[in-house]
């Protein structure tokens, strides 16, 4: 009766079962996986948000397939003055920006634009677990390419090149990556463009965490990348910490003829759905303006939590933290005494601490746990203390 692409394992895994049981038991929970910014105690400017949604122009329905021009101009402003990999940022023309109801929808449109059923898209490992489902839904084969860790992460280009086949259509990068927090380096971006341009492949760059750089330097964006056809994705969910608004965008760049065809075709895909709602599109410029105050709060939270974590790790001989350059997560290297999932379940059952096992993110080995650095400070401090106690040493 049902298409094989939806033939997923539907029963909860052991980790989810353990979590459900723990919640039912009413025991305390030190949740170090909090990733919903609206549920982590930030001070949102409620009135300004609500006022932005109350625009009377939203009473009238005037569909625009790429999204309302004013909103696309707001996105173009977001990129103004930023540095691209290939030099200082010229303007992103709003005509090559399209709005979607989330980054996932953007991925889906791009995959439908580029790939026949069974085509391949290269994705980093470790990375964001949702790709697997997005790939299934678009009838794609996702081919992992490894990121290697050696005092910082880098793309393993030898493996990436070895994974290319005549069916490869695109290379996906997450910049900075979730959960490793690593940015694509300038020379890596150039090498990717060279590979893609030579094989008629595209770059898909997920920049939802772009503004959360750990260092003082602002990150470089792919939005001005022009050596290969490039789709740069981002959205309000992380940039303005408003995931409930369901508004994201893609900026298309690259050789002009390819950009033009890609945009024309994407416009038809977008017009078929017309998903983003009018009130949210009209509010987008205001929401982008509000990002500064919200991001500042979150960056403070992240640096407080990192300092707490590093303080606790200094007392431990067994636990270390991998270097990160940005994003919302920290990756811990822990003794690999068994599968990460067993470890995460034991942490929950014995210490009431919730962390994500590395294998959720496709780490190639055991011995990695992922913590969210946007967790409220008190909860983070206690959770990390419990974690250290669990491992002893
Ligand atoms: C790398 C990455 N891309 C995209 C998203 C989701 O973005 P959106 O809410 O716009 O679909 C997430 C959410 O955590 C993410 O980690």
CATH superfamily of the largest domain: Type I PLP-dependent aspartate aminotransferase-like (Major domain)
From the alpha carbons, calculate the radius of gyration and give it in angstroms. Answer: 21 Å
Q: Please, what is the average pLDDT?
A: 96
Shape: globular
**Strand percentage, roughly?**
15-25%
Broad structural category? alpha/beta
Enumerate the strands of the largest sheet in spatial order, edge to edge or round the barrel: 4-11-10-9-8-5-6-7
Biggest sheet details:
8 strands, mixed
Task: Output the keywords.
single chain, alpha/beta, Aspartate Aminotransferase, domain 1, Aspartate Aminotransferase, domain 2, 2 domains, four-stranded antiparallel beta sheet, binds pyridoxal-5'-phosphate
Structure summary:
The chain is 39% helix and 17% strand. The protein has 393 residues and is α/β, with parallel strands linked by helices.
Write the layout of secondary structure elements.
Blueprint: H1 14-25, E1 30-31, H2 46-53, H3 69-79, E2 83-84, E3 87-88, E4 97-100, H4 103-114, E5 120-125, H5 131-137, E6 141-149, E7 153-155, H6 157-162, E8 168-174, H7 186-198, E9 202-206, E10 230-235, H8 236-239, E11 248-253, H9 256-273, H10 278-314, E12 320-321, E13 329-333, H11 340-351, E14 353-354, E15 356-357, E16 368-372, H12 377-391
Parallel strand pairs: 1-14, 5-6, 5-8, 8-9, 9-10
Antiparallel strand pairs: 2-3, 4-11, 6-7, 10-11, 12-13, 13-16, 15-16
This protein binds pyridoxal-5'-phosphate.
């Amino acid at each position: 009766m049902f298409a094989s692409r939806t033939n997923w394992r539907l029963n909860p895994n052991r980790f989810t079962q353990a979590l459900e049981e723990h919640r039912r038991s009413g025991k305390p929970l030190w949740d170090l996986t909090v990733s919903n910014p609206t549920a982590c105690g930030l001070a949102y400017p409620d009135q300004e948000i609500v006022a932005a949604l109350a625009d009377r122009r939203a009473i009238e329905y005037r569909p625009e397939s790429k999204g309302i021009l004013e909103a696309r101009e707001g996105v173009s402003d977001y990129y103004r003055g930023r540095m691209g990999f290939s030099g200082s940022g010229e303007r992103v023309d709003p005509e090559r920006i399209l709005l979607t109801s989330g980054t996932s929808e953007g991925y889906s449109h791009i995959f439908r634009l580029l790939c026949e059923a069974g085509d391949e898209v290269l994705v980093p490992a470790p990375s964001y677990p949702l790709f697997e489902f997005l790939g299934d839904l678009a009838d794609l084969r996702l081919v992992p390419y490894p990121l290697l860790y050696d005092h910082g992460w880098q793309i393993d280009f030898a493996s990436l090149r070895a994974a290319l086949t005549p069916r490869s259509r695109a290379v996906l990068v997450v910049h900075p990556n979730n959960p490793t927090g690593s940015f694509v380096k300038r020379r890596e971006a150039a090498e990717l463009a060279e590979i893609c341009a030579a094989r008629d492949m595209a770059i898909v760059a997920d920049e939802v965490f772009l503004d959360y750089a750990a260092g003082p330097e602002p990150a470089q964006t792919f939005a001005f990348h022009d050596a290969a056809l490039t789709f740069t994705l981002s959205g309000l969910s992380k940039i303005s910490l408003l995931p409930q608004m369901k508004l994201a965008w893609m900026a298309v760049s690259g050789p002009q003829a390819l950009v033009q065809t890609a945009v024309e075709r994407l416009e038809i895909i977008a017009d078929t759905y017309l998903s983003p709602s009018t009130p949210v599109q009209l509010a987008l410029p205001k929401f982008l303006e509000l990002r500064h105050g919200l991001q500042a709060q979150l960056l403070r939270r992240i640096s407080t939590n990192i300092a707490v974590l590093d303080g606790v790790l200094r007392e431990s001989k067994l636990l270390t933290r991998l270097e990160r350059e940005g994003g919302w997560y920290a990756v811990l290297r822990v003794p690999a005494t068994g599968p990460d999932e067993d470890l995460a379940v034991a942490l929950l059952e014995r210490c009431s601490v919730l962390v994500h096992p590395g294998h959720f993110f496709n780490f190639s080995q055991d011995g990695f746990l992922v913590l969210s650095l946007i967790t409220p400070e008190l909860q983070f401090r206690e959770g990390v203390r419990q974690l250290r106690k669990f491992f002893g040493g």
